Amino acid sequence: MNIKPLFDKVVIKPIEIEEKTTSFGFVLRSSDQEKPCVATVVAVGDGGLIDGKTVEMKVKVGDKVIFPKYSGTEFHFENQDYIIIKQSDILALID
Q1: Residue 40's closest CA among 79, 10, 2?
Q2: pLDDT for position 29
Q3: Distance separating alpha carbons of residues 83 and 26, to the nearest angstrom
Q4: According to a count of CB atoms within 10 Å of the terminal CB, is the N or C end of the chain lower?
Q5: What average pLDDT does this structure show over 32-37?
């Protein structure tokens, strides 16, 4: 990937939702299901001095994270969907 986020920003790629079949036989397409709140980190900014405070980056490329449903800025790059968010908007790391 050729994207380098600045400062305390993190680029994440939401994990794809698979189609599901309900117990009644209905197929729920991925577009009909809720937006995922789990993603993989694909790029991390350098941190540094932001608003007078030193920010150390705690996430790294490859981490799986949980983020708020409506946070960040969505964008499309090289036929993939991504979200760029502040590190402080990430709620948790998944082991």
Answers
A1: 10
A2: 59
A3: 30
A4: C
A5: 64
Measured in whole angstroms, how far is the alpha carbon of residue 56 from the centre of its chain?
18
Residue type, 42: V
| Token pair belonging to 16 | 């794809």
As given in the structure block, the two tokens for residue 26 are 């209905």
Residue 37 neighbours by CB under 8 Å, 6+ apart: 66, 67, 68, 69
Which pTM was predicted?
Answer: 0.79
* pLDDT at 1 exceeding the cut of 80: no
Q: Residue 74 corresponds to which tokens in the numbers above?
A: 């969505």
How many whole angstroms separate alpha carbon 42 and alpha carbon 39?
A: 9
Distance CA(9)–CA(30), nearest Å, equals 27
DSSP 86: E
Chain position carrying tokens 């996430």: 59
